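Figure 6 in text form: structure in, sequence out.
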């Protein structure tokens, strides 16, 4: 009987122990860093003869069948053409400049997809397709001076019966923090 009473006494004593003595507190700091918003502009320095940072295919003479003209995003070499397409005049990739906090890493993407339609200036039913828009890298890091530059290239599809005249179109480029 004494063993049962002792067991009950120890059980009750264990339940009465202050468990608060086993708790611990810690102070935690909350941090927030407000960064300078990034901005993006077309490079107006006319690198490689391209007017106002826009992609330019210059003057095009269509080929004997549907062809293409490709301007690389990685360099300013002569455009690659297919099916007898000829190009002359000023051509080159688009150059863009991003400004923001030095060391900021950014992702580059095309919010309009990686293509756009160029519409004839006088005949909106006539168009050319600009496809495979690309940058040399999908990321860019802002340098110590607060700038980063990158260029955009793409491939223009040119029907053999393309109507002469000026074609233009717009595409959107997005820059997002990593």
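Output sequence:
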């Amino acid at each position: 009987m004494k063993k049962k009473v002792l067991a009950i006494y120890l059980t009750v004593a264990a339940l009465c122990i202050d468990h608060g003595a086993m708790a611990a507190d810690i102070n935690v700091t909350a941090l927030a860093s407000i960064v300078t918003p990034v901005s993006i502009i077309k490079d107006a320095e006319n690198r490689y003869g391209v007017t106002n940072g826009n992609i330019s295919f210059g003057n095009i003479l269509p080929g004997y069948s549907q062809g293409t003209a490709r301007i690389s995003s990685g360099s300013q070499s002569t455009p690659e053409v297919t099916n007898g397409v000829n190009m002359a005049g000023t051509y080159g990739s688009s150059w863009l400049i991003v400004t923001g906090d030095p060391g900021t890493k950014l992702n580059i993407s095309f919010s309009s997809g990686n293509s756009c339609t160029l519409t004839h200036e006088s005949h909106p039913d006539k168009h050319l397709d600009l496809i495979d828009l690309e940058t040399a890298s999908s990321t860019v890091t802002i340098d110590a001076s607060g700038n980063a530059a990158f260029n955009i290239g793409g491939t223009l599809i040119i029907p053999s019966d393309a109507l002469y005249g000026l074609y233009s179109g717009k595409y959107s480029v997005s820059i997002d923090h990593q």
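Caption detail: Helices lie at 2-15.
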